[in-house]
Amino acid sequence: MALSSSFSSNFCDHVCPQALPTIKRVVEDAVKQKSRLGASLLRLHFHDFFINGCGNSILLDKIATINSEKTTIPSKNSIRGFDVIDKI
């Protein structure tokens, strides 16, 4: 089976029906508290997906075997929204 035929835009509806409503609620709550978080989340995902590939590596926490992008000098005090992603 081809990879494209094994995924669909409504995949979560069947596997985890509360995923998208939960994501929406958490993001909306965060933006209500700090309006700039909407833009911060877009920037976080833009840099992870479009700058040097799309590995979600910026979302990984640093551990002994992984030196995360999250804690690198270019990301430090620059990229916001990790707390929202962690809450989701």
From TrEMBL:
Keyword Calcium: yes
Note describing how the cofactor binds: Binds 2 calcium ions per subunit.
Cofactor dependence: Ca(2+); heme b
Reaction catalysis annotation: 2 a phenolic donor + H2O2 = 2 a phenolic radical donor + 2 H2O
Domain called Plant heme peroxidase family profile: residue spans: 2-88
GO BP: any one term: response to oxidative stress
Site positions per UniProt: Transition state stabilizer: 43
Pfam families assigned to the protein according to its UniProt record, in alphabetical order: peroxidase
InterPro entries for the chain: Haem_peroxidase, Haem_peroxidase_sf, Peroxidase_pln
Keyword entries, A-Z: Calcium, Heme, Iron, Metal-binding, Oxidoreductase, Peroxidase
Class of enzymatic activity (EC top level): oxidoreductase
GO molecular function: heme binding; lactoperoxidase activity; metal ion binding
Entry's EC annotation: 1.11.1.7
Keyword Calcium attributed: yes
Binding site for Ca(2+): 48, 53, 57, 69
Active-site residues, record numbering mapped to chain: 47
Family: Belongs to the peroxidase family.
Stored PANTHER family: PEROXIDASE, PEROXIDASE 72-RELATED
Name of the protein in question: peroxidase
The organism of origin for this protein: Capsicum annuum (Capsicum pepper)
Classification of source organism: Eukaryota, Viridiplantae, Streptophyta, Embryophyta, Tracheophyta
